[in-house]
From TrEMBL:
Family matches, as Gene3D superfamilies: Domain of unknown function (DUF427) (2.170.150.40)
One matching Pfam family: NTP_transf_9
Domain DUF427 stretches: 15-104
Provenance organism: Thalassococcus profundi
Identification of the protein by name: DUF427 domain-containing protein
Source superkingdom: Bacteria
């Protein structure tokens, strides 16, 4: 893996909430740091309530990670459009994030260490 991206196990337990509801909690999350950007927590799919996520047609391409697919979060109060992304077929250098999801932290969506 290049020095541009670092992936390591995230210490402790991490939780993600949307609209006040817990979408998941994990002791197996990964912390990805890319360049000078703040780290992003990637949750294993097995630890997320996938029934609350709806896959969208949106995608983006990262030259270091590959093509990201997106999901919206359906909460009781609203839908958070394209608030979740996943590299379902990541580049070899970041293969660890396969089967993981990252969440766009915003008003109503939180990712926290507990």
């Amino acid at each position: 893996m290049s020095d541009h991206i670092k992936i390591r196990p995230a210490e402790g337990t991490w939780t993600v909430r949307a609209g006040g509801a817990v979408l998941g909690e994990s002791n197996d999350a990964l912390e990805l740091t890319e360049g000078d950007m703040p780290f992003v927590i990637y949750f294993p799919r097995k630890d997320i309530a996938m029934a609350l996520l709806d896959k969208t047609d949106h995608s983006t391409v990262c030259p270091h990670k590959g093509t990201a697919t997106y999901y919206s979060i359906a909460s009781k109060s609203r839908t958070y459009e394209n608030a979740v992304w996943s590299y379902e077929d990541p580049k070899d250098a970041v293969a660890e994030i396969k089967n993981h999801l990252a969440f766009h932290v915003q008003d109503g969506v939180t990712v926290e260490q507990v």
